[in-house]
Known about the structure:
Cofactor: Mg(2+)
Structural class: alpha+beta
CATH superfamily: Nucleoside Triphosphate Pyrophosphohydrolase
Strand content: 35-45%
Largest sheet: 7 strands, mixed
CATH class: Alpha Beta
Helix content: 10-25%
CATH topology: Nucleoside Triphosphate Pyrophosphohydrolase
GO molecular function: hydrolase activity
Keywords: Hydrolase
Domain Nudix hydrolase: 29-158
Number of domains: 1
Protein name: Nudix hydrolase domain-containing protein
Shape: globular
Amino acid sequence: MKKELVYQSKDKEIEVFEDEFGKITLKEIPHEAAVMVALENNSLILISQFRPAVEEIIIQLPGGGINVNEEPGEAAKRELLEETGIVCGDAMFLGSIQPSACYSNCVTHVYFTKDILEYRSQKLEKKEASIQAFHIPIERAFRNIEQGIWKDSELAHGLLLARLKGLI
């Protein structure tokens, strides 16, 4: 197996592995992200964001990378604030997922909140300028996933975990 460090900064490394069949796998360090299933008045709070890898706008749970020395739950709350402007209180850990285990070592930690405390302005980075936050009824979100309109694995898995735990 060939291994090559293709990117390195003060807080991130990306290695590419190629096996004997030419299959490419990425290893990212750190490799964790956190997302938030947020509920207000029986509506989910989601985001739309242009994703260059698939060249389209994707519907997702608010979330993103975990900073060095940051707990996953705090990262989920921070990302909820940055991407939607929502400040939340208590958040419950639902589980962890590996959204693309055949290509990457990324792990996403999923949280749930209905403890909406305050609305503020979004705090988007330049690269996040395309993010739009919106509310949608729970059952409509499930229909959009069922019909293949929305394809994001973190969104589908997060909603499934929340449904299985009786939260939505």
